[in-house]
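thread: overnight batch results

M.L. [08:02]
morning all. the overnight job finished for the chain we discussed friday. pasting input first so we're all looking at the same thing
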Amino acid sequence: MDFHGVSGIEEESALSGNGGGDGPRDDGNGNGNGNGNGNGNGKGPHDDDDDDDGSRKGDGSARNSVRFGACGERFSDRLDEQRSSMDQARANDRGQEAQRPLQRGVPMLWALVAIAIAALTTAAALSLIRADRGPRPAFLDAPADVGSARSEASVERTGALVLAGSGSNLPLTRALAKAFLERHPSVKVVVAESIGSTGGIRAVRDGAIDVGLVSRALSPQEAKTDLTITPYARVPVVVAANPTAADACVASGDLAGMWSGKGQRSRWSDGRPVVVLQRERGDSSFLAVSASQPALGVENEVAYGEKRWRVLYDDRSMQEALMATEGAVGVFDLGQIVAQSLPLKVLCVDGVTPSVEGVLAGRYPYFKDLSFVTRAPEASGIRDVIAFVRSEEGRAIMKALGYAPLPIEAGGAP
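M.L. [08:03]
and the structure it wrote out:
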């Protein structure tokens, strides 16, 4: 049997006899010296077919030939097994490769579903925010500064006069604007959501709106500008409480004790705790009260530092917190309570019930003035609005809603 070309393991098997052969192969001339375990001196395992001296001799040589043949067969079997295993592995790889697009597609599908859900959630949240805040005020989209001709240009460009500022002014100003539009249907007036007195002043100064609504006096720096302030109403500032508050009156000297959260005035007469709701620093209503109650102002600052109470930053938040919080008390204005029919308890102070008449007679000490702020030159539409507010019809509306019209008429009558 010829084993030419069988490598490695086959060649080593040919040398596995007990004889000490010098080499596995001859030189091609039949001179191989590989000795088997038998008596003969077998030549190398491979010789030329024409060389009689290359014949195998000895029992060891015969046994080596048998072993080598069996090893070759086993090696062939192993090769077949390896080929079969490799073919199976390739088939498995092809199957896995075919499944990979589907496997990749499933996570991608879930990722797309997650993105869609997130988009829907975001859209819903934005819708709720818009619904809560109301429509975007038109003046927010206006140029920052268009010069001194801004008032006339505003009427021509947007077709509406835009008023914005303090939340204290909004209920009354909206009632007045509604009545004005009934008399002047060709004019458009927009009263935007609250941006505060300071925001209203800056917006007028920058030419973003036509009329600022303020509930405080101009600061010295603001007074140096070319702005014009026109007071149009005075409103009592009150100590307002949640309807669950047991008391109907409070002494002015006890207000600081309530704000301190300590001592006898930290509870209502029925033993329930007093829950103070603070406004931000500079709030016009609180300033109107603390101006005549210095101890209250000091205690208010201490409460800020200790984070003792909840702080509200606009009138709407304040009124909602007062209505929703048992035992709550805070500083608010009477006009908003009357104009909106808010279910709040207005406490008398030192035995005096807050009212316009009490303010004008000097019996009730806490009040503030509401004003328009404009920038020269005023558009004719602005002048028409201010004239209507000061007319008999406008003054009657203010009185009905709990405001004292300004200017005060001779003899102190509103």
